[in-house]
Amino acid sequence: MPDDHWTPPPVLLAVDLVILTLRESVLHILLVERGIEPFLGALALPGGFLATDTEDILAAAHRELREEADLDAAGLHLEQLGAYGAPERDPRGRVVSVAYLAIAPGLPEPVAGTDAARAAWTPVPEVLTHRVRLAFDHEQIFNDGLERARAKLEHTALATAFCTPAFTITQLRTVYEAVWGVQLDPRNFHRKVHAVEDFIVALDAERRDGPGRPARLFTAGSRSSLFPPLVRPTPTATSEVLP
Amino acid sequence: MPDDHWTPPPVLLAVDLVILTLRESVLHILLVERGIEPFLGALALPGGFLATDTEDILAAAHRELREEADLDAAGLHLEQLGAYGAPERDPRGRVVSVAYLAIAPGLPEPVAGTDAARAAWTPVPEVLTHRVRLAFDHEQIFNDGLERARAKLEHTALATAFCTPAFTITQLRTVYEAVWGVQLDPRNFHRKVHAVEDFIVALDAERRDGPGRPARLFTAGSRSSLFPPLVRPTPTATSEVLP
DNA sequence: TCAAAAGTGTTGTAACTACACCCATGA
DNA sequence: TCATGGGTGTAGTTACAACACTTTTGA
Hints:
2 copies of one chain form a homodimer. Chain A is of the alpha+beta class and 243 residues long. Chain A folds into 2 domains: 12-154, Nucleoside Triphosphate Pyrophosphohydrolase; 156-220, Winged helix-like DNA-binding domain superfamily/Winged helix DNA-binding domain (Arc Repressor Mutant, subunit A, Orthogonal Bundle), CATH 1.10.10. In chain A, 24% of the residues lie in helices and 26% in strands. Chain A has 5 helices and 9 strands; from the N terminus they run E-E-E-E-H-E-E-E-H-H-H-H-E-E. In chain A, the strands form 2 sheets. In chain A, strands 1, 2, 3, 4, 5, 6 and 7 form a 7-stranded mixed sheet that branches. In chain A, strand 8 (200-207) and strand 9 form a beta hairpin. The longest helix of chain A has 18 residues, at 138-155. Chains A and B meet through strand 1, strand 4 and strand 5 of A and strand 1, strand 4 and strand 5 of B. Chain A binds a DNA duplex (27 and 27 nucleotides) through residues 168-170, 185-188, 190-192, 195, 208, 210-216, 228, 231, 233.
């Protein structure tokens, strides 16, 4: 603790968001094109500074989610990733950023909210293969967020946050495949999901699009931690991992 | 992002530490008695404010570890838990704290460093049963830190951070039992630990104290992630969990 | 020779992978 | 009746808990 005559140096607090969703079976992240220096024109995670002296950090994340992505808080997963505070991470001065991971159900079109005109869903493989470069230390934050999402799919019901209220088991499997970047056996997946009580509950409805047997519709159950867990396949030398 | 004429509100940045160690087979946490208001006289996590404008947050954690606990950075585990920034968490004003989890090998006596005169190792069960109350939101941070440590024992070699450079398998098992608060079968534990390649490597030495067959000494190997993992026993209705 | 602690073998079970197979629908 | 996708059955394998058993020491 400091002594009475010394005042600690103040810092500016920002919030940055890793917002993930599924679009046409591909994992996407919401990125914005920066309109001001530094990194003018570069892509970055949506985010911003704390609005007032008394704003809660989680509330700030919710606000940015609304302002920059036009996404409502209701029914959307939001959790903290951590604080990023290297002294030189922002050339404007000492800015510490608290990063959040948000998961949204698949949205039909790129959002067009107030500040969100420049916001665009970007395929995650584009970022992973460095075809897209991010401003600041946002690539680090993105990597941490993606790894958090991948890990939490194993032990929690996070996958349902990617889905609309009613979904088929195949849609749920597509979530796992897109986030993990692997192929899963549909038949074993079907049973594993059913083996966890209250992970998904059957609705009294079916979905019939194209040909093939109609699929039962489900909704997220009350269970939040999965047992037995759905473990990621261990990458072997022979197995192929999608980018 | 803010417009050019508006300045975001500054906050004060603190660092708080959850420092865990094992003392006589019981998990302990380092707590300090507060010497100033608020919460004067109450127990709290060691920590303090950022020292300078340009100090890295992780460096600040290392500095507090040295100042408040007289612990050297070398060979000690330190990882970030997250940011705690509720507006009313500190009555003095807007203080955002970045919490860290530190794991230290068992130390013979309560540390007596510069600021650490009032620091004391406190048994974790005392805190869990609310016989010890913590200042600010430090109980929340403590719970998050403990859960992080418990979870990481399963999948990483974190347990070796609790041990001196040379340790027996029984000592390693004691770490798991103390942190998880369960009893483990010594024979199955022995094999599971050996099944993970490079988790522990045998030294050419034995330890012989009291009666009984001398135990082989080991040291931490190069492996950091454990496969197969050492999974916590699922608490059942009949099983007893130590406080 | 006994107690204590280290370490090994064995057995039944749970959960998994891989794949053969059956079911229900639209064209 | 065929292609397409949904869903079930089964066999071999891995990891595991439980516990009987052997080994090596100090007193």
